Amino acid sequence: MTSSAELKDFEASKTMRNVMGQYFKELTDPARPKKIAWCTSVGPAELLRGMGFEVYFPENHGAMLGATRMATDLIPLANAHGFSPDICSYLTSDIGSYLKGESPLNKMKLPGPPKADVLVYNTNQCRDVKDWFEFYGREWNVPCIGVHTPRAIGDVSDTILTDVANQIEALIPTLEEVSGQKFDMDKFKEVIALSKQCTVLWKGVLDAAANVPSPISFFDGTIQMGPAVVLRGAQSAIDYYEILLAELNDRIKNGIGAVEGEKYRIHWEGMPIWGKLKSLALQFIELQTAVVSSTYCNSWVFEALDPTEPFKSMARAYCELFICRSDEPKEAYLERMIEKYKVDGVFYHNAKTCPNNSNSSYNMPQRMQKKTGKPYVIVDGDLNDLRLYSEEQTRTNIEAFVEQLSQS
Ligand code: SF4
């Protein structure tokens, strides 16, 4: 083991903080000329941006509440308001934050999340997002509309794509009414093209981790993904990932790994544990183990986007996601990840308030081990609710797992 674990930040991160800061500044400026649309993280952002909205993603706010550990004090407020401790802790943290009037954005001297003019969800990830948005729709008496995508999709059939594409198109009249602007197909196609460019670059960032040693870890990815989540379809995200990718290529050229003396490589399955990112990253560095891939960071890769077929390609991009697929395509995907990233073992995070993005409850780890021969560890925890996470237990499990990797 190395004696002093150290996180290696990227030079580019300074630019990222500026890009994200500017995004939040514009979003929360009371003098902004644009209407605000709230959008789920894998919702129809391109349509909203193409129709002239500023787009706000409350799950990103949920992640900030988790990372700053503000969630711990805020979740009980939402629980007392009737939102169960068993449901999505992004939802309960965010509603708790609203009820208390406190947000991590205040630390950036910003007033807090902007009030929505319209809320737009996609149930491709879970039903919780719809319930979450409907709370605010009732609170502010604004339209809450969305796309109902099937879950546990096996083959992404043409019937599903046509249905989802029609649902996306059917959002337009309400959006026109709220924005006061007519839908402009050329503008929409332009945004799809920008979003595709962002996806290609973001995928390039994640693909860099296939190198040995990996120049970037999953923990870096959870921070670096900010622009791909909230600014896809905007030029600033593209400009940022060009800078980051150049730095990654430099690291690759010079053999610089995110983990000094990398010995083992792991795939992280499921949600991050936002309040423990730093301590987990440091523990893995101490163990000379690089967490090189994840389905989480890859969830913002939308390769199917195609400006020549805007609605259908958007439907495909948002139906092909790992989270809304059945176990068979999920397992095939994991197999490809394990091979591509030269993974030695798989870490399954069983996030107690997000069964939608936890994959360890129905025998998948055992099946995957049988197929690939790669060992696994399952860690119970949560994305935001640290009452559901045991630091001591997790540290011990990780140590034992890496010890197991050293013997395989
Ligand atoms: S997928 Fe999980 S974490 Fe994301 S909004 Fe749904 S329940 Fe919450």
Overall description:
With 408 residues, the chain is an alpha/beta fold. The protein has two domains: 29-181, Rossmann fold (3-Layer(aba) Sandwich); 188-407, Rossmann fold (3-Layer(aba) Sandwich). 49% of the residues lie in helices and 10% in strands. The chain has helices at residues 13-28, 45-50, 58-67, 71-80, 89-100, 128-140, 158-169, 172-179, 185-207, 218-224, 226-230, 235-253, 277-286, 310-319, 327-340, 364-372, 391-407; strands at residues 36-39, 54-56, 118-122, 144-147, 264-269, 289-294, 345-351, 376-381. Strands 2-1-3-4 form a four-stranded parallel β-sheet, sandwiched between helices. Strands 6-5-7-8 form a four-stranded parallel β-sheet, with helices on both faces. The longest helix is centred in the middle third of the chain and has 23 residues, at 185-207. The protein starts with 12 loop residues before the first helix and ends with a helix. The mean pLDDT is 97.
